[in-house]
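User: Hey, my collaborator sent me this sequence without any context and asked if I could get a structure. I don't really work with proteins. Can you help?
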Amino acid sequence: MPGFELFGDQERKQVNDVLESGVLMRYGFDGMRNGHWKAVELEKALSERMEVKHTQLVSSGTSALTIALASAGIGAGDEVIMPTFTFVASFESIMALGAVPILVDIDDTLTLDPEKVKAAITSKTKVIMPVHMCGSMANLKALKEICEQHKLLLLEDACQAIGGIYEGKPLGSYGDLGCFSFDYVKTITCGEGGAIITNNDTYAVHADNYSDHGHDHVGKDRGAETHPFLGYNFRISELNAAVGLAQIARLDEFIALQKKNYTVLRNAIEDLPGVTIRTVPEGGEENYSFLSFFLPEEEIARSTQKLLVENGVDGCFYWFDNNWHYIKKWDHLKELKSLGKFPAEVINGLQDFDKLDFSQSDKWLGRNISMLIKLSWTEEEVKLRAEKLKEVLSDVLLEVKN
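Assistant: No problem. I've predicted the 3D structure and written it out in structure-token form, which is a compact way to encode the shape of the chain:
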């Protein structure tokens, strides 16, 4: 998800504006700014691009998730349903508020299985949080129907999927709240940063206040602002926002390049017997940041990923053995390892992981390889990569057949 690959004059111009004004903070110092309000401009650009009323820029994707939950009143003991395959930030953001992550199996979309979600709902469930991993989405229509039936919030973690579309809506805008990450290895980057989007006026005000120590941001005298409720410091800087402002203007350019390179690679392997491409739900279009596919068995996928790397096909991930992205290696969550004490609601509400059966998730992720799609490849590099990818997979699958 490499927006950083194509830094250029646009990014330099926006950053230089900030450096020349000398104002790195997004709030205050009106007279020194020379009219530059990069965070405000980026929020407006994101709202327009994502077709929503409100955007709140923050310091990271993790803080975006935390603020989104807090803005909707999620707190101690509330249950949030999330997938077994995600980044650790998903459960970190939930537990930071004293809420309880409820992990649920994935299906062939590599994110939440709606049937498993239904079975996980209790009287304490407040949010369903699909995570659009590797650029593609869950079956959002089915999840939204579940939310409407049970009066739950649908929070889209679209941190890895900006630019994707579902039923004509930009990913992140389909649910009640959507979150993005703009860290260094996302499709567009601020270096560090994130955003919450919503059409809900109340959530928007809450997010705006909560992310800046509870400041109400009324008037132009920061020292005179009141504090309707407690908040924290999750602000983005003007420097980070400046980079993102240049990058959001290039999002369609980046997505087009990703799609072009993705398509060449997919065409090379999708008809190979034994290769199954990840399912994109009907009505959805991924952002083409990864080509994710399944092989017949776990050991075949594990050994094939190593073979691909050895043959120069880099950027191939076998998430099943990854420390950060799958429940199998989340011992710090399972054992509640922390520097401080957890609230009783978390201790008593967390699932008993020793008794849970996530074999369905194992089945899908154990057979999956996800290949990063870079923007900076030349046409010749993509062609050679596709040929090598097909060669390695063909040899492996022929050997399996024999």
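In plain terms: The two ends are 37 Å apart (CA to CA). You can pass these tokens on to your collaborator as they are.
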